[in-house]
Known about the structure:
Number of helices: 7
Subcellular location: Membrane
GO biological process, one term: ubiquinone biosynthetic process
Order of helices and strands: HHHHHHH
Shape: elongated
Structural class: mainly alpha
Family: Belongs to the UbiA prenyltransferase family.
Oligomer: single chain
Protein name: 4-hydroxybenzoate polyprenyltransferase
GO molecular function, one term: 4-hydroxybenzoate polyprenyltransferase activity
Amino acid sequence: MYAMADREEDLKIGVKSTAILFAKYDRVIIGVLQILLLLILVKIAIIFKLGMFYNLSLLIVAVLMVYHQKLIKNREKTACFKAFLHNNYIGLVVFTGIALKLSFFQ
């Protein structure tokens, strides 16, 4: 998402960023990677039996990912940068789900 925010600058100075590499497929590739991450997190939930709080956190993560896709839909520079900055909440939500599981159901 960060690379999408400065695509024009990268083109001007000749940097080969992922946004340039992926071109018009950048949103699709980000979406595929988001789904892959979500599937891995679900697999972790199953393997370690992380329960309700973690599962709820994954639902919130899915909503955040949809929000990020909505932000980057038009590839507008400030919206892409906003999605990049907002992306850290995914890690926070996953961490919170694990912390709640470990705090209440040890």
